[in-house]
Amino acid sequence: MDRPHPIANSRKVAFKRMKTMDAKQNTDAAKLPIAIILPHAGLDIPPEFRGRLAIGEDQIFNEADVYTDLIFDFKDRVTHWVRFPYARALIDVNRPEDPGMLKRIGDGVVKDVTSYGQSVFKPNQRPDLTEERAIIHRYWQPWHEQLAAIAADPNVRLVIDAHSMAARGPKKYDPQQKMRPKACVSNLGDRQGNLRNGYPRTTMLAADLRFLGREVERRMEKMSSLCPIEEPSSVSLNEPYWGGWDLKAHGLESRQPWAMIEVSRALYVGPQDGNTPAQPPNMEQIEQLREAIWEAIAALYWRLEEQSA
């Protein structure tokens, strides 16, 4: 576990290929004042955890929002692009630091179990409370300082919280392991994008979230999946995910609208469970997804600009 994850080299090759494409397409294009945040794309292992893990490379791969840093690779198109480099199977910056606020036991900043119910640490190797507080200070706090700065920046006009999801719900999150749609867009609201019970506001107006959902759906309509997906709708609102801690902590009081986009890994990885072997990126599918998602985000941005004019 001390060596780099085996898909690291294939990711570097993919980034190089896509950077060359962007250079050709965006030489004279101005960046849009959009922030893309990627809390779960990383696969790195923090040095504090080496030799202590009960899970291996495949389990880390299946827990990650793998290759979202390729799908949402808009660094040459937006003003802010931030990616947390460490594996969310180990450190999850999209969770509150207070354990009392967790929805599921063991699903905090420092993980105890994977979404498939596998223990993360070997017996007696989990960080104690003192070490956990140090880890939160070292990794979680700087991430949220970045997001707070973005939320307070009046020059940022839109924030996209970028994720992916397994084709079926993992059993720790979804005991029935239901099939999921091609994508989900979220604003901390209900299934129509309106206010959810107990929340005073959403992170984006319902009409704008519905617009984003339609744009994503229209552009994904002809994309094939590598395994079954939920029908009939290919894009849902706030289901199965309505937003994580990043949206709750920063998107509700921000200077700009925030939306989360979840892309099904049915489109570019295929069926997964906790032990599915790690695989290199399917660039044909990823490049199609990348352009479809960008067109939808850009359409939303220009809609918001027209509204504020």
Describe this structure in words.
The protein is α/β, with parallel strands linked by helices and 309 residues long. The longest helix is centred in the C-terminal third of the chain and has 26 residues, at 283-308. Helix 5 (206-220) runs antiparallel to helix 7. It is globular. The protein is built from seven helices and six strands; from the N terminus they run αβααβαββαβαβα. It has one domain (8-308): Zn-dependent exopeptidases (Aminopeptidase). 33% of the residues lie in helices and 11% in strands. The model is unreliable at 17-28 (pLDDT under 50).
The figure for the number of domains is 1
Overall geometric form: globular
First-to-last CA distance: 53 Å
Quote the average pLDDT.
Answer: 90
Proportion in β-strands? 5-15%
| Classification by helices and strands | alpha/beta
Write a brief structural summary.
Helix content is 33%, strand content 11%. The chain is of the alpha/beta class and 309 residues long.
Annotation keywords:
Aminopeptidase; 33% helix; 7 helices; 6 strands; 309 residues; alpha/beta
What is the element layout, followed by pairings?
Blueprint: H1 8-25, E1 32-38, H2 57-63, H3 68-71, E2 78-83, H4 129-152, E3 158-165, E4 183-186, H5 206-220, E5 235-237, H6 245-251, E6 258-264, H7 283-308
Parallel strand pairs: 1-2, 1-3, 3-6, 4-5
Antiparallel strand pairs: 4-6
